[in-house]
Design goal:
Helix content: 55-70%
Strand content: under 5%
Low-confidence stretches: none
Number of domains: 1
Shape: globular
Number of helices: 7
Strand order of the largest sheet: 1-2
Number of strands: 2
Oligomer: single chain
Mean pLDDT: 94
Structural class: mainly alpha
Radius of gyration: 18 Å
Largest sheet: 2 strands, antiparallel
Length: about 210
C-alpha cells in the first residue's frame, strides 16, 4: 500500500474516532454543564471519573494499535502514532465546535486529560502540539518511503525529551489550584513555548540528520 493510502486510512480512523470522543464529551457536558463548560471544574461521581480515566486510556491504546498495524520499524510506528494523535486531537475540537459551538476561541480553557493528574491549558496549546506531531510524522514517513534511514541521536532525543517535559509541566503545574479557578485559568505560555521549541528542534534534527 502506498504511503498516501496509509495516511488517508489513518486520517479517516482518527477523524471518526474524534467524532466518537467528542460525542461522549457532549453527553457529559449536557449532564454536568448544562449552562456551558467553564472553570471551576464541577465535582462528578467517582464512578464516572473512573470510567473517564478508562476512556482516556482506551483512546491511547486505540491510537497505539493503529500505529502498530500501519508501520514496521519503530520510527515508522512512532510517526504513525503521532500523526493519528495529532489528527484525532484537532478534529476532536472541530467536532465539538460543530456540535455545541465550543470552544469559543483557541484561547478558551480546557481540561485536556486526567492521567495521572488533570492537564489544563487553552485549546491553542494542544492544537500547536498536534500540528507539530503531524508535520514531523509526514516528513519522517516521506523520508522512510524514499529509503532514507531515520534514527534520532542522543542530542535529538534529549531535545525531544526536554521539550515534552516542559510542555507537560506547563499543563499540570499547580493543577489543584487551577482546576478550582475561574476562567480564564492562568497558563505558563513561556514554559510551554520553550518546550515546543525544544521538541520541534529535536524532531527537525532527527529528520535532517537522516542518512540515505
Amino acid at each position: 500500500m502506498k504511503l498516501s493510502q496509509k495516511l488517508l486510512l489513518v486520517f479517516i480512523f482518527s477523524l471518526t474516532m474524534a467524532y466518537v470522543e467528542s460525542a461522549v464529551v457532549v453527553y457529559l457536558r449536557e449532564l454536568y454543564y448544562p449552562d456551558g463548560f467553564t472553570f471551576p471544574i464541577k465535582l462528578i461521581p467517582e464512578k464516572i471519573i473512573f470510567i473517564e480515566l478508562g476512556r482516556e486510556l482506551a483512546t491511547i491504546v486505540m491510537l497505539f494499535s493503529v500505529a502498530m498495524i500501519s508501520g514496521k520499524l519503530l520510527v515508522e510506528r512512532t510517526a504513525y502514532f503521532l500523526f493519528a494523535f495529532g489528527v484525532w486531537d484537532i478534529f476532536y475540537y472541530l467536532w465539538l465546535k460543530v456540535f455545541i459551538n465550543w470552544p469559543e476561541s483557541l484561547l478558551t480553557d480546557d481540561l485536556l486529560f486526567l492521567i495521572p493528574v488533570p492537564w489544563i491549558s487553552p485549546v491553542l496549546a494542544p492544537v500547536l502540539v498536534s500540528i507539530t506531531f503531524i508535520s514531523f510524522s509526514v516528513l519522517a514517513l516521506n523520508k522512510i518511503q524514499s529509503g532514507i534511514h531515520i534514527k534520532a541521536n542522543k542530542i535529538s532525543l534529549a531535545m525531544i525529551l526536554i521539550g515534552v517535559i516542559l510542555i507537560l509541566m506547563s499543563f499540570i503545574w499547580n493543577y489543584e489550584k487551577r482546576i478550582n479557578s475561574v476562567s480564564p485559568v492562568e497558563f505558563l505560555w513561556t514554559l510551554f513555548l520553550i518546550g515546543l521549541l525544544f521538541m520541534s528542534g529535536g524532531f527537525l534534527k532527527t529528520i535532517f540528520s537522516a542518512n540515505q
